[in-house]
Amino acid sequence: QVHGEYIWAHLPKHEQDSAPFCCPINFDRNYNEVAWPVVMVDTYWSISIISTFYPGSNSTVPISTYAFSTKLAKKAGGWDTDVFGIGDDFHFMLKSYFESDGNVKMIPVYVPAS
């Protein structure tokens, strides 16, 4: 098991609270068990997510697998839990981006998730 602070250890101290990590995700499970339109949508969605993971990208999108610092999560007001809230990963990244005046830069971890 990796200690929670390990992934931020290589960053300068002043960047550690505003640098969420995320990895690319590929929706490739159970393709043989779902309808072909679902497979097509999942394939296009995977390609669009992975396409944001090039070095220097300013729009890396966290989908499903990501890590935010506790300080950044608190600054953004945490995840929405009311009936009108959107509790997904992309929404939380946007929320933290705007709450920190654009001071968030996603750091890609090049380990594919599935």
Provide the β-strand percentage band: 5-15%
Kindly report the average pLDDT value.
Answer: 79
List the secondary-structure elements in sequence, H or E.
EHEHHE
Inertia-based shape: globular
Question: Rg, please?
Answer: 15 Å
Number of helix segments? 3
Category from helices, strands and their pairing: mainly alpha
Number of strands: 3
Helicity level, as a percent range? 25-40%
In which order are the strands of the major sheet placed?
Answer: 2-1-3
Distance between the termini: 19 Å
Q: Could you describe the largest sheet, including whether it forms a barrel?
A: 3 strands, mixed
Low-confidence stretches: none
Describe the structure.
The chain has 114 residues and is mostly helical. Helix content is 28%, strand content 5%. The protein has three helices and three strands; from the N terminus they run E-H-E-H-H-E. The protein has helices at 36-50, 70-75, 89-99; strands at residues 21-22, 66-67, 107-108. The protein has a three-stranded mixed β-sheet, with no helix packed on it.
Topology:
Blueprint lengths: L20 E2 L13 H15 L15 E2 L2 H6 L13 H11 L7 E2 L6
Parallel strand pairs: 1-3
Antiparallel strand pairs: 1-2
